[in-house]
Amino acid sequence: MTGTAVYYSFTGSTEVIAKSFSEKSGFKLCKLEDREKRKSAPASASILGLGTALKEPLPDIKNVDFLVLLTPIYAWHPSAQMNTFLKNAGIGGKKLFLVGVGAGETNEKAMARFSGKVKKLGGQVAGTKAFKGVQLGKNYKEVEAALQKSGEELAKIIDSPT
Q: What is the full DSSP assignment across the chain?
């Protein structure tokens, strides 16, 4: 299966998973970037379901049949950056697989909220998966191999018939 993976990453966890996934799957990779450099993640905007200013242009998905969206999770909500993408990208009628990266490997509440946003905008959710990202107090290098394996696991999940 081929398609496009769109991701946002603040700490780097989601980026490692996205790059590993892209390498294993062959999916085109598109990064969402903040218009201005941030010192901290806009968690409050995420929780409120708001967006944030992104560098333009957003990834063009008009001719993409299958999308994988990868986002950090803040207090059971997708990132404000992903909210902006969802609102402006035109996902209606698209088939999407949703990935949340956060504190746990089973984040049902967050994935249900993410799915709900996508469905409300007319997207078709093909599946969801949560992965554990870098945790507070952990050294990023300690978990980098596990993050890469998460991307490889995601490639196997997407490649399997659903």
A: ---EEEE--SSSHHHHHHHHHHHHH--EEEE--BSS--SS--HHHHHTT----BPSSPP--TT-SEEEEEEEEETTEE-HHHHHHHHHH--TT-EEEEEEEES-S--HHHHHHHHHHHHHTT-EEEEEEEEE-PPTT--HHHHHHHHHHHHHHHHHHHHS--
* Residues 87/50, Cβ–Cβ less than 8 Å: no
Q: In angstroms, how far is CA 149 from the centroid of its own chain?
A: 16
The values of phi and psi at residue 17, to 5°, are -65, -45
* 68 CA to centre of own chain: 7
CATH architecture for the domain at 4-159: 3-Layer(aba) Sandwich (3.40)
> Which pTM was predicted?
0.91
pLDDT, tens digit, for every residue of 45-64? 776 777 888 898 999 999 99
